Every structure is written in C-alpha cells, then in structure tokens.
C-alpha cells in the first residue's frame, strides 16, 4: 500500500481503513515510511481529524507494534491510572500501593518529566538504588508478589508510538485529540490492563488549559478505550494551582512517605488520590461503588497497609529497606533553603502554575533537553494554597536551591507567579474533581 496514497486520502478528509492504518503503523515500525511521510500524515490527521473507529484502529495497531504484556492466572484485577501531567502531581506514587493494599494489581509504567510537568520516574530515581528499568521477568514477579511496581517506559512497548510522537513533537502536531488518545492508550493496552482510571488535568498548569479541551480529550479516551476493550473512567481535575505541598523530585518522595504514613495529607491531593483510586477499585470489581471504595482505601491508609506496600516495592526494586523510617538519611537535600516572603499582606487568589513548573525545570529539577541530568534536591516545599491568608513577609513557600544566587532568582520569580488579593477577600474554593466521564 503506497504511503502517499494513504496521506492523500486523509489530506482529502477521507476516513482511513483498518488496512491503511495498519500499513502506516508497519511503516513506522520497520522504517519503510520516511520522516517526511510520517510528518505529512500527522499533519493531515491534525487538520482533518479522525473518527472514533479510525482512532480505535490506530490504537490497536500501535499496541501490537511491540511486546504485549500478559497477566495469566492473576488472583485479582490488573489496573492502572494515567495522568495528563501537572505540577506537584505525585498521585501515582500514593495510589499504586493503596490499590495494591485493596487487592488490585498495578503494573504501572510511568513517564519522565515533559515540559513544565514533573515525571514519576524522575521522582523515583531520587531514591538511592531504585531501578526504574528492571528486566521483564523481575517486573512480572514483583507485580504478582506485591501487587504493584512502578517503572519507566520500555522501548519494546508500542514502539510505533514512540517514533510517531517524536515526529509530532517537532512538527507542531502534538495537540490532536485522536493522536493523543491513541498514544496514551496504545501503551496502556500493551501493558495488559483490565481497567484504567484517567486523570485529565485542566487549568493554567495543565496541557488541557480549558474545560472544553479537557472534556473532549476525556470523552475521546473513554470511548476509544471502550472500543478497544479496556474499561476506563476519566476524571477531569483542577490544575490551577500546585498539587500538594511540595514540588521537586526528592521533596515529592518525602511528601509521598509522609502521606502514606498519615503524617501529612494535603486536602486537595488526598481528594484526587482517593477519587482516582476509587474508580480503579470499582472498575476492577473490588468495591460495589465509589463510597465503598473510598472507605476501603482509607482503611488501607489508616492501617499502614498502603505504606507497607510502598516500602516493599522500594526494596524489591533496589531501594533502602528503611526509607520509610529514615527518608532524610537517603533523599538528597539542597544546600540552600530559604523562605519566599509575601511582598505584602493579602489572600492568595491565583497561581501561574505553569510558570512555577518551569521554574523547577530552570533550577535543574527537570530537563530542557532529553540528555540533561536531573538535580533531585531542588524544588519548593510548604507551598501555600489558593485561599490562604498571609501577612507581609510570611512565607509563601520554601525554596530548596543549589546556591544562594539561584535562591534569589527563584524568590523573585515565585513572587511574580502568585496573585495576592486584599486582606479579608473571600476566595471560593475550586473543586479538585471538575467532572467524571464514562
């Protein structure tokens, strides 16, 4: 099947057949399609769109372009969660052991930071010894024995998507709902899942900046996943402020440990974690409804069962056995820690969340290019949230920096990224879960 004829068909607004889509994916995998041809079809889809059936065919074809995991004889449902990315989003680190403590099996293949958003794999690599690239047999064994393992993406799962995404990234065709849908779901389907909980972040710190775009993406993912045989629910969640109290790799691991041990659970972070994990339990038949699921998850937290699962996962993947008891002994700490003072008294009314995420990248906590090394130490802690009243000079957050000069730059940039209303101003709390799809 000629590549140029497939491109021509989509350029002219025609729906591609399953055979045409399979020919394209084969060309992605074996290299018979040139970069120019891949880019041309990507742009044609970006401009002309894809119907649901086409998106299902593309998802399935990319899923089968590499290894597809199998989980035979599992005693419980194989479940996962995926987020479209946010600032301070460490939900996966808490959710996987919580679901495992409730009888689910979570083979979570996570990503690295992308743009202004932090990556789960980068956070885990702040733990000394933790390997995010175990061999398949070890990964399989850990999931079966413990109920969860969080690792990095492997090149043999949906390799066609990896090539297609790399081309889309440099040809301004990333923001296509059907292509985003197929990219996410092809990897999740290749992981052999039976149920998926999607977190579509929405707001000024999210890829989906408007509720309309977030809803379009959520509906597409739920529909295409269903068409491909994967039960999926999508939550649209607020990302107009930092999620949790800490931002930065080692700091977010420390917050995860404190959360699982019940020492500190920021309310918005707790709510979105419970909401996403509850959907997983219901999808997997581990709870009759979300109320029952939330109660079971809370018991897993309160009893210490979820914390124990996280500790066991860390040890199984090479981390220290006493990380939960002595995180400060293992997690790297920044040499300079300073308060970011409020320039005047007022009520925190808004955050430029994306700017705060980019600030972490500029400090070295994220990557400008793929080859950059991560500084796991840097970030922000004790972040004050929208609605908080502050006096003049009171900390808006604490900056953890590599040196004094960096700290001063961050202080000025952070002050510019937040808005203070007059003292006494009432700020309505935005719901963390904005909508549920599916």
Structure description:
The protein has a four-stranded mixed sheet with strand order 1-4-5-12, sandwiched between helices. The protein has three domains: 3-49, Transferase, Pyrimidine Nucleoside Phosphorylase, Chain A, domain 3; 79-154 and 168-316, Nucleoside phosphorylase/phosphoribosyltransferase catalytic domain (Pyrimidine Nucleoside Phosphorylase, Chain A, domain 2, 3-Layer(aba) Sandwich); 332-421, Aldehyde Oxidoreductase, domain 3, CATH 3.90.1170. The radius of gyration is 22 Å and the shape is globular. The chain is an alpha/beta fold and 438 residues long. The chain is 46% helix and 15% strand. It has 17 helices and twelve strands. The mean pLDDT is 95. Helix 4 packs parallel to helix 9 (177-190) and helix 9 (177-190) crosses helix 10. Helix 10 links the parallel strand 4 (195-202) and strand 5.
Features:
alpha/beta; Aldehyde Oxidoreductase, domain 3; single chain; four-stranded mixed beta sheet; Transferase, Pyrimidine Nucleoside Phosphorylase, Chain A, domain 3
CATH topology of the largest domain: Pyrimidine Nucleoside Phosphorylase, Chain A, domain 2
Superfamily (CATH H level) name of the largest domain: Nucleoside phosphorylase/phosphoribosyltransferase catalytic domain
Overall, the morphology is globular
Text of the CATH class of the largest domain: Alpha Beta
Query: What series of H and E elements makes up the topology?
Result: HHHHEHEHHEHHEHEHHHHHEEHEEEHEE
Whole-number tally of structural domains: 3
Strand order, main sheet: write it out.
Answer: 1-4-5-12
Tally the beta strands. 12
Sheet bearing the most strands, described? 4 strands, mixed
């Amino acid at each position: 099947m000629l590549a140029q004829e497939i491109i021509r068909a989509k350029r002219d607004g025609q729906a591609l057949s399953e055979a045409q889509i399979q020919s394209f994916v084969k060309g992605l995998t074996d290299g018979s399609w040139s970069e120019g041809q891949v880019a041309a079809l990507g742009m044609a889809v970006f401009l002309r769109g894809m119907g649901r059936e086409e998106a299902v065919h593309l998802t399935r074809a990319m899923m089968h372009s590499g290894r597809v995991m199998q989980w035979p004889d599992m005693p419980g449902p194989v479940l996962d969660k995926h987020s479209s990315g946010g600032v301070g989003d460490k939900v996966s680190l808490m959710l996987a052991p919580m679901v495992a403590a409730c009888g689910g099996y979570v083979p979570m293949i996570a990503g690295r930071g992308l743009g202004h958003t932090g990556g789960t794999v980068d956070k885990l690599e702040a733990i000394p010894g933790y390997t995010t690239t175990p061999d398949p047999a070890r990964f399989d064994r850990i999931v079966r024995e413990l109920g969860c393992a969080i690792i990095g993406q492997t090149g043999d799962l949906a390799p066609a998507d990896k090539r297609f995404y790399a081309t889309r990234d440099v040809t301004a065709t990333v923001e296509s709902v059907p292509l985003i849908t197929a990219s996410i779901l092809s990897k999740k389907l290749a992981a052999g899942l039976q149920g998926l909980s999607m977190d579509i972040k929405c707001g000024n710190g999210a890829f989906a900046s408007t509720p309309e775009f977030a809803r379009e993406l959520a509906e597409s993912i739920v529909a295409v996943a269903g068409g491909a045989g994967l039960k999926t629910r999508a939550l649209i969640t607020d990302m107009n402020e930092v999620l949790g109290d800490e931002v930065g790799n080692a700091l977010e691991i420390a917050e995860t440990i404190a959360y699982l041990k019940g020492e500190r659970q920021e309310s918005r972070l707790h709510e979105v974690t419970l909401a996403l994990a509850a959907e997983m339990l219901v999808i997997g038949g581990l709870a009759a409804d979300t109320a029952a699921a939330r109660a079971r998850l809370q018991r897993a937290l309160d009893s210490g069962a979820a914390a124990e699962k996280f500790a066991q996962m860390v040890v199984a993947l090479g981390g220290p056995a006493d990380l939960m008891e002595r995180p400060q002994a293992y997690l790297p700490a920044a040499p300079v820690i300073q308060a970011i003072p409020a320039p005047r008294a007022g009520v925190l009314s808004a955050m430029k969340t994306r700017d705060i995420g980019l600030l972490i990248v500029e400090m070295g906590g994220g990557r400008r290019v793929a080859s950059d090394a991560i500084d796991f130490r840097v970030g922000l802690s004790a972040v004050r949230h929208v609605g908080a009243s502050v006096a003049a000079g009171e900390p808006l957050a604490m900056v953890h920096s590599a040196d004094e000069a960096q700290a001063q730059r961050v202080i000025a940039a952070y002050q510019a990224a937040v808005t203070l209303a007059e003292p006494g101003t009432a700020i309505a709390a935005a719901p963390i879960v904005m909508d549920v799809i599916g």
